[in-house]
């Protein structure tokens, strides 16, 4: 064993010298931070991040447990991060607190400045342990490492809390990558092996030309071509925030990608991040992009991620995504929660958002109770990190600057509409008549609704809840399709492909679905039924009816179901819609009605409810002494409460069973976790815990559970259990 300080040791005895690790991390962090103008801050933070490993206790530990991956998984705890944090403050004063947050949190996550009554995890409390720094400085660290100049870059005009989080991302990703390069060099060299956007643009152009050649010469396809033309033309605009307001069926997905590719090429942006509200439909969009771009597309869910630091292992940390691919398809939960995260695995990707084009698909589904923090950070990304944002939707929400008080920031300024005349587009693409049931005061039973549906050879019915979907499906004739997020992604993809095939062949097809078909799923029914919901959802349902405009008119029938929508935003949106449309004889699927709907949903109830958890105050430092509550803000920003649901991997089909066997054998490799995302189902926590207790599911790696027996998954309806479960939280957002 060498006498030089060691950072890591492999099982076969290879040594990673600490000085090499510090410089390797520093250079990577400098490169990452240079993308938003803070190369020197990145280098210095990376260089000092593991100063605590020079300490005698750490060096004794690593040499005593020779052959173990102590960097990530040792059971022997030695604080090796506080010393570097203390040194930053010793050298830089209050400004050193910036680097202190990064170093102190590079394993356990960004801390709060103040803690609870015990002071646990509080940075201010950790910085009282002066003896940790004294023990390190006595170890003869080289002047080249310790005596570095103060960074010259000034974060003027930037939100300081978010700037710290971006620097934190640079340091933790650099640390992970340098560590991975030592432990698994053969895997490390595979990272970043992607085509550039400049190489992908002609591939996309050829795909669109071939698509237009085979398209039927219908009015709808002519409008789609014009939408595409306008997107390519408007891509020349300077970076900023854009809205793409196109009715459902107008080709937003591919046209927004055309805008993003051309815009990124013209303005030197590095990647495209496509953000989708539902886990249950992300695979549809990812599949579409993979048909064009192949493996250059990374699909990143919020599933299969350990829920706390204690559950993370060396493999799960190294396997977590850092969004180094040119095209990322992800969820609202993964994207927005990462922007407010404190954990290293969530923050790791943030620096790769800089100088990107972010497409927010179905932007109207941003949750109102978190709208202020979300809009604030989107504006920060636009102003200071070279990010262009596209708000893509058929029902553009009212998120521009509003005349209201309560916050200094309450909307986005300077939103540029890509379409020349969105209102005219709605007129041109109107191909559905929306009809309310005669009696919208008394609910219909599921038996009554099924009797109506059976009258049609091909019909789609969309309901608000998973248990509603199963109740109605059970009353339908054999052969009726069921779609909900209790089916894994691979299962849903198979069913949707089969539904499309049957419809195109003119085969009678009936489908009962939750709202997962309302965005990103290109199916075309002559008749659609929709349980009363928010006006935006009703408009999305209309987009599954006469989508291609091949009939003179399609029909959307809106009915009052026997159950209410889930409590929360779904129910609020439904109540607003009922007030606005019941009794009206005018067409209510118009831009004017959408604007009125969102104004009431967002702003007319007061801006305080748009930051219901008071997250922005946790990230505001009125004292200008770098006092932030990163961990508290992160715990508050939960689009889906991960204490209320948990994931399992199901053995759907031969591929699902094969991947589970591979997971048991090799552990959470990054490529394997990517593929397994297609075989995940989210369950209520109380059911998840009961199944675990009963042995019906089992934990094969920390935080990763698999289906224990085949009876838990049904080929028609997905996950099932012999005890009745009421699902209050549907697949909204997640």
Write a brief caption for the model.
The protein is an alpha/beta fold and 734 residues long. The protein has 31 helices and 21 strands. The protein has a seven-stranded parallel β-sheet, with helices on both faces. Strands 10-15-14-11-13-12 form a six-stranded parallel β-sheet. A two-stranded antiparallel sheet has the order 1-2.
Walk across the major sheet and give the strand order: 5-6-4-7-8-3-9
Into which percent range does the helicity of residues fall? 40-55%
> What is the CATH homology-level superfamily of the largest domain?
P-loop containing nucleotide triphosphate hydrolases
Give the termini distance in whole angstroms: 49 Å
- Beta-strand percentage range: 5-15%
CA-atom Rg in angstroms: 27 Å
Number of helices: 31
Number of domains: 4
Tell me the number of strands. 21
Which CATH class of the largest domain applies here?
Alpha Beta
Low-confidence stretches: 67-74, 308-312, 403-408, 723-734
CATH architecture of the largest domain: 3-Layer(aba) Sandwich
């Amino acid at each position: 064993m060498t006498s030089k300080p060691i950072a890591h040791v492999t099982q076969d005895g290879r040594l990673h010298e600490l000085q090499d690790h510090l410089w390797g991390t520093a250079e990577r962090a400098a490169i990452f931070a240079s993308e938003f103008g803070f190369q020197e801050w990145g280098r210095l933070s990376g260089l000092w991040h593991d100063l605590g490993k020079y300490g005698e206790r750490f060096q004794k530990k690593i040499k005593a447990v020779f052959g173990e991956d102590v960097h990530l998984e040792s059971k022997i705890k030695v604080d090796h991060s506080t010393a570097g944090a203390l040194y930053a403050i010793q050298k830089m004063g209050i400004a050193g607190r910036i680097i202190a947050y990064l170093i102190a949190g590079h394993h356990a996550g960004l801390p709060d400045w103040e803690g609870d009554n015990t002071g646990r995890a509080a940075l201010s409390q950790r910085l009282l342990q002066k003896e940790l720094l004294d023990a390190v400085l006595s170890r003869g660290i080289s002047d080249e490492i310790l005596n570095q100049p103060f960074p010259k870059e000034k974060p003027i005009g930037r939100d300081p809390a978010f700037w710290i989080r971006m620097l934190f991302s640079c340091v933790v990703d650099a640390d992970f990558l340098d560590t991975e390069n030592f432990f698994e060099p053969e895997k490390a060299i595979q990272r970043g092996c992607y085509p550039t956007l400049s190489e992908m643009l002609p591939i996309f152009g050829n795909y669109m030309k071939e698509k237009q050649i085979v398209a039927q010469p219908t009015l709808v396809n002519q409008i789609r071509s014009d939408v595409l033309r306008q997107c390519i033309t408007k891509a020349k605009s300077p970076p900023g925030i854009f809205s793409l307001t196109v009715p459902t069926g107008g080709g937003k997905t591919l046209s927004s990608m055309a805008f993003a590719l051309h815009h990124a090429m013209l303005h030197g942006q590095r990647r495209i991040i496509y953000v989708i509200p539902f886990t249950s439909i992300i695979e549809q969009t990812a599949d579409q992009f993979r048909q064009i771009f192949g493996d250059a597309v990374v699909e990143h869910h919020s599933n299969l991620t350990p829920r706390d630091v204690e559950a993370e292992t060396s493999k799960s940390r190294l396997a977590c995504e850092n969004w180094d691919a040119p095209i990322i398809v992800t969820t609202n939960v993964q994207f927005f929660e990462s922007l407010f995260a404190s954990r290293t695995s969530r923050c790791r990707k943030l620096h790769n958002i800089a100088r990107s084009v972010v497409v927010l698909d179905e932007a109207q589904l941003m949750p109102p109770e978190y709208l202020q923090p979300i809009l604030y950070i989107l504006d920060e990304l636009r102003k200071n990190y070279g990010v262009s944002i596209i708000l893509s939707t058929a029902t553009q929400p009212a998120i521009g600057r509003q005349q209201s008080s309560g916050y200094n920031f309450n909307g986005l300024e300077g939103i540029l509409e890509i379409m020349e005349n969105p209102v005219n587009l709605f007129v041109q693409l109107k191909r559905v008549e929306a009809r309310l049931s005669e009696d919208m005061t008394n609910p219909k039973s599921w038996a009554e609704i099924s009797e109506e549906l059976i009258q049609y050879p091909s019909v789609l019915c969309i309901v608000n809840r998973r248990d509603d979907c199963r109740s109605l499906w059970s009353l339908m004739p054999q052969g009726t399709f069921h779609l909900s997020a209790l089916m894994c992604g691979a299962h849903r993809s198979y069913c949707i492909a089969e539904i499309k095939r049957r419809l195109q062949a003119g085969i009678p097809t009936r489908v009962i679905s939750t709202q997962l078909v309302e965005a990103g799923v290109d199916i075309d029914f002559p008749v659609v039924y929709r349980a009363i919901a928010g006006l935006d959802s009703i408009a999305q349902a209309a987009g599954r009816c006469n989508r291609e405009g091949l009939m003179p008119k399609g029909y959307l029938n809106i009915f009052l179901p026997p159950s209410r929508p889930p409590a929360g935003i779904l129910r609020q949106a439904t109540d607003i819609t009922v007030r606005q449309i019941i009794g009206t004889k005018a067409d209510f699927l118009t831009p004017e009605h959408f604007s009125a709907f969102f104004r009431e949903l967002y702003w007319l109830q007061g801006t305080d409810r748009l930051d219901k958890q008071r997250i922005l105050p946790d990230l505001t430092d009125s004292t200008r002494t770098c006092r932030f509550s990163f961990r508290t803000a992160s715990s508050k920003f939960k689009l889906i409460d991960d204490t209320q649901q948990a994931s399992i991997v199901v053995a759907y089909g031969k591929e699902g069973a094969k991947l589970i066997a591979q997971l048991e054998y090799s552990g959470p490799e990054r490529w394997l976790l990517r593929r397994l995302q297609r075989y995940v189902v989210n369950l209520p926590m109380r059911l998840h815990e009961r199944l675990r207790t009963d042995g019906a599911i089992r934990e094969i790696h920390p935080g990763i559970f698999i289906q224990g027996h085949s009876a838990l998954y049904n080929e028609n309806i997905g996950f099932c259990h012999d005890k009745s479960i009421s699902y209050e939280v549907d697949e909204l957002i997640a």
